[in-house]
Amino acid sequence: MRGLTATAALVALAVMGAGLGRPLLVGLAVALLAVLAASHLWRRGALRGVRYHRRLGATHLAPGEETTLTIDVLNEKPVPLGWLLVHDALPRGIALLDEAIPAGAPEPRGLLTTLSAPGAFGRVQRTCRLAARERGVHRLGPAELTSGDLLGLGEAHRALSATDTLTVYPRLLPLDALGLPPGRPLGDWLSARRVLDDPLRFSGIRGYRQGDNPRYIHWRATARTGSLQVKVFDPTEAAVLAVALDVRTRRGAGAAVPEHLEYAISVAATLALRGLDEGYHTGLWANALGPSGATSVHAPVCRDARQAHRLLTLLAGLDGACGVPLAEILDRLGRSLAGAAHIVAISAAPTAEVYEALYALERRGHRALLVVIGDEVHVPAVIEARFLGGRDAWHRLATAAV
Fold this sequence. Notes:
The chain is α/β, with parallel strands linked by helices. The chain is built from eight helices and 20 strands. The strands form five sheets. The protein has a six-stranded mixed beta sheet, sandwiched between helices. It has a four-stranded antiparallel beta sheet with strand order 1-3-7-5, with no helix packed on it. A four-stranded antiparallel beta sheet has the order 6-4-9-10. The longest helix is centred in the N-terminal third of the chain and has 24 residues.
């Protein structure tokens, strides 16, 4: 509208100058009209052929870890840009280490601002450092490009819908800080059922640990590495650990308790990974809402090299939106897990139905344990339970781990 008003005014000025016989006035009006036309054409083509790309050094991080974000701006046309401003949205859980996020940036997202002037067929590259601050599947973007003419007569804008994802795993907690012995994370509970290795089913090599059978030392690997290495065999019977996580954070009505959710997720991650380390085929179930309307999510029992990544990625994406009750998850596990499995239920809001489901698991021949987050509650004596505390315990552990 301002451009049309200015154009109409200059045309009127030229007509008036011609009517008054003032060639200088006509010339000035024509020159200014030419400048306006050039400015309009520049703006229309300023962002054509401009490409913007992000490249993350790593797409999965543990809390506190850092990675690089490299930004590429490409001008794929023979006309230079006088200036180009890029605003790229950053999630709250990711910290930009190289500069402060503007104080007026809208929450919960900040802005990464890049100002450049790419030449003809030019390229501008910028690398900055990002730090993982909060668990989650964080979205970088979308970005907005802004450019214009050198006289500041107008601007062109283009929104880019492409985003990139940076996953921050849950915080892993030290076992002794949870009141659990480091050698046996759940006391004698997890190690109560001993599974024999089958010497005919060789599966790999690992470093020697105290208590390993000297007969299984791999002398050739020991000589090559300079440290004792032992052979690893597949067990004759698969030892199974199933972790069942309740994303509800309190009993009864009231606002959610974010600290309870983070604590429960970190405990689930810590115990699941320790189960893998101890040779258990480990899976995870949670009563959180999943994609396509699913009322629960899970990572099936497995012990391959990618299982830790699957478990941590699933836990990274959980929020407090609850689907089915935890008792229903436990009932499903009782029907689907063969043999005598170890099942850990983690909840800040255990119910009578949960106690009944855990007792039913025991009667089926499984071993069941309840880990309670938050205030201590009365748990029937037939249910084995651990109480890990609530907000204060979580803040203490999270602060110590930073």
